[in-house]
Write a structure and sequence with these properties.
Blueprint (H helix, E strand, L loop, with lengths): L17 E7 L7 H11 L4 E7 L5 H7 L5 E6 L4 H5 L4 E2 L1 H6 L4 E5 L2 E5 L1 H14 L7 E5 L3 H12 L4 E6 L2 H9 L8 E5 L5 H5 L4 E4 L26 E4 L8 H9 L2 E3 L2 H16 L5 H15 L1
Parallel strand pairs: 1-2, 1-3, 4-6, 7-8, 7-10, 8-9, 10-11, 11-12
Antiparallel strand pairs: 3-5, 5-6
Helix pairs in contact: 1-10, 1-11, 5-6, 5-10, 10-11
The structure holds NADP nicotinamide-adenine-dinucleotide phosphate (NAP).
The site of NADP nicotinamide-adenine-dinucleotide phosphate has 23 residues, from helix 6 and helix 10.
Length: 299
């Protein structure tokens, strides 16, 4: 029996559809199918974006399945971003630098790995806030995986300075050691250091890349900066996307600063992936709208 895929509201048969999806271990809350399927539908591309949850020992086989003619490729998320890096045939320059991939593109059986966490983050800054990072002073709160992607992008864009403020200072030291040639642009301090005000008040861009402010966490109602620590003429980007307006973003609004919601980082990594798979411009606003509606439906 041939299954008609109704999700698309286009009468494609399942066997005729291009396949694409996301690799990960725990994906029940993934938003990627929500906004990627909207993009495929909008561009009238007969593809279905699925969630592919499996354990580590299946990764190699799953990556090889992406070589099939009807496969566009995949997104890759935690904990497979570094492992999948070693399983593709080719890598783009940013992926090589950062040592991890979140996107695989199938080019006639040859697999190329990309990191659109980095490119999407920079693109969101430019397209949502018209912010050109070149020559700017940045304060980034956090030194985990999300901070790493943001910092790679910002270093490539030739920012003037980056201060990394983390709860565990050693982790920040370890992170910046990966940026061999550019050490002079970095400084490090604890997120709880009083000197953080001096730095935040001189920043052109402040990024929260910690999980502070995340819904259902013990820090749900916390912000690492108060309104009086945020200058009115800066851009504040909170990578946390649930809730859409975090306590830090509320404080930034109170200070008169421009804000960027974390949902944009998620959308733009997906936008860049979509464009790599299809060669078409992604319908950014439709993708964002659909993701927002999904959030609202969750209550
Ligand atoms: P991670 O690697 O686990 O890093 C977590 C970071 O948060 C570390 O810097 C950690 O500091 C800090 N942190 C955690 N609890 C803290 C607390 N109570 N006080 C101060 N700092 C605290 O996680 P990640 O992958 O970088 O993700 C960080 C956040 O970004 C998460 O909320 C995630 O959902 C979000 N995110 C969003 C996107 C997007 O597309 N918008 C993409 C990726 C991640 P220590 O080093 O001291 O532990």
């Amino acid at each position: 029996m041939i299954l008609t895929v109704k999700k698309f509201e286009i009468n494609y048969k399942r066997n005729d559809l291009y396949q694409v999806g996301i690799f990960g271990e725990k994906l029940s809350h993934s938003l990627s199918p929500v906004f990627q399927n909207v993009a495929f539908k909008y561009c009238q591309i007969p593809a279905l974006y699925e969630v592919w949850e499996f354990s580590k020992d299946e990764l190699h086989e799953r990556v090889n399945l992406l070589r099939k003619p009807n496969s566009l490729g995949a997104n890759v998320t935690i904990p497979y971003k570094e492992l999948a890096y070693d399983m593709v045939d080719d890598l783009d320059e940013t992926a090589k630098q950062i040592g991890a991939i979140n996107t695989i593109v199938n080019n006639s059986g040859k697999l190329k790995g990309y990191n659109t966490d980095v490119s999407g983050f920079i693109r969101s800054l430019k397209e949502i806030a018209s912010f050109d990072p070149t020559g700017k002073n940045v304060l980034i709160l956090g030194a985990g995986g999300a901070a790493r992607a943001a910092i790679f992008g910002l270093v490539n864009e030739k920012v003037n300075s980056i201060t990394v403020a983390n709860r565990t200072v050693d982790r920040a030291v370890k992170l910046i050691n990966d940026f061999g040639v550019d050490q002079e642009i970095f400084s490090i301090l604890s997120v709880y250091d009083e000197k953080i005000s001096e730095i935040s008040l001189r920043a052109d861009l402040i990024i929260n890349a910690t999980s502070v402010g995340m819904k259902h966490s013990s820090m749900e109602f916390e912000s690492l900066l108060s309104p009086d620590q945020i200058p009115a003429n800066c851009v504040v980007y909170d990578i946390v996307y649930n809730p859409l307006i975090t306590p830090l973003l509320k404080n930034a609004q109170e200070a008169g600063a421009e804000i960027i919601q974390g949902l944009w980082m998620l959308i733009f990594q997906g936008v860049d992936s979509f464009e790599l798979w299809t060669g078409k411009s992604a319908p950014v606003q439709n993708m964002y709208q659909k993701a927002m509606e999904h959030f609202k439906s969750l209550g």
